[in-house]
UniProtKB/TrEMBL annotation:
Annotated ranges, domain N-acetyltransferase: 12-163
Classification of source organism: Bacteria, Bacillati, Actinomycetota, Actinomycetes, Micrococcales
Name listed for the protein in its UniProt record: GNAT family N-acetyltransferase
Pfam family name, one: Acetyltransf_1
Keyword list, A-Z: Acyltransferase, Transferase
A molecular function GO annotation: acyltransferase activity, transferring groups other than amino-acyl groups
Organism of derivation: Cryobacterium zhongshanensis
Gene3D superfamilies: 3.40.630.30
Domain of life: Bacteria
PROSITE patterns referenced in this protein's UniProt entry, alphabetically: GNAT (PS51186)
Length: 170
């Protein structure tokens, strides 16, 4: 199967992302954020695009005839916030198309990227989540992510944000 990772449960092709996917993933990120926030916020795509230049692991879920319906992007250690543990890879972006949410795809992608990071020798990973994004917080906690440090205001949205850390060896 080459670069593909079978995903029979979701009947989607799960594969590694590539440079040709950047714009489609950035557009999906904007749609998912607008659905989460109830409004499109200027600057979301511009903040996301540079993260694709620091890829440590990038996995996309694609439906035939539809395109990319979800993706997760992890970046190299020290590519997140200055307060992040310096050795932790950063799960920078996780987005699911609004009409594909609630079907377990986010959990599948998050588990796959954690496994990929562990295989690459990372002992832990970090991510940042809006504290009021309760579905995302539940997902992260179910998969073993733990709050780390004090909440802080999101730099663009100014909403409380929490860092989460996961031991990838567990």
């Amino acid at each position: 199967m080459g670069n593909e990772l079978a995903d029979e449960v979701h009947r989607r092709m799960i594969r590694h992302g590539s440079a040709e996917d950047i714009e489609e993933c950035a557009a999906l990120w904007v749609r998912a954020c607008a659905a989460r926030d109830g409004v499109a916020v200027a600057g979301v795509a511009e903040r996301a695009r540079p993260k694709f230049g620091h890829v440590e692991s990038w996995i996309v879920a694609e439906e035939p005839g539809t395109g990319i319906v979800g993706f997760v992007l992890a970046t190299k250690p020290q590519s997140g916030l200055p307060t992040d543990p310096p050795d932790a890879a950063v799960v920078s972006l996780l987005a699911i198309a609004p009409d594909a949410q609630g079907l377990g795809l986010g959990g599948t992608l998050l588990a796959r990227v954690a496994d990929a990071l562990a295989r690459r020798g990372h002992e832990r990973a970090v991510l940042h989540v809006l504290a009021d994004n309760h579905p995302a917080v539940r997902l992260y906690e179910r998969q073993g992510w733990m709050p780390w440090g004090a909440p802080f205001p999101h730099s663009l949205l100014k909403r409380p944000t929490q860092t989460y850390l996961r031991d990838l060896g567990a």
